[in-house]
Give the backbone structure.
Amino acid sequence: MEKLEYFVNKLIAMRISILGVFYLLLVSLNTNAQLTVHHLLTNNRVNPIGVDDSLPRFSWQLSGNYRNIRQQAYQITIYDAQAKNNSFWFSGKVNSSQSVMVSVRLPKVIPNKRYTWKVQVWDEAGNTAISTETAFFQMGLLQVSNWKAQWIEAAQMNDSVGRPSPLFRKTFQLNKKIAQATAYITSHGLYEAFINGKRLGDGKLTPGWTVYSSRLPYQAYDVTQHL
């Protein structure tokens, strides 16, 4: 009887020891839980330029080394890209699980200006993470008055259908290093644009079909590396 009691007590002690190890393992996993936020998108694009919507939409993804990750809150901060750590807009902590196409109504934005942004998230377990990747968006030309260039036109010819496509060329010199340059291009018809012999963009049939009398799309190109 004593041997049986000794055996039962030993089993109970072993069970308590196993439960203790299991508890310590759970505590360790919870302590080392890592949450990351990445794949930042603006209007479903990576670092877009030529954004002509005053209500941009931001998206991001969460991942971690544990299961059942669910966002509980987020906080978006937008900066002036030319003034480091100068906050342009701050959402504050928003209790929401939304992480796709989060619309933001910004104060007055400047055409052709670049902004960077970060997002901080919290999950239901209280873990938090801040995006580390550099994400930006650049505003386009928001008003017709922002366009300063004049239309370039070919000389009039009697045969407007059979005439060859016009080629326009301009030579210019830069007297200093360019920090950032963007080319905004459109046309009545199709165009291809080159700088120093290098074609801008990979689009075909730009600027795209439209009814010229009511709407004319344009393309924005970052040409900093071309100059």
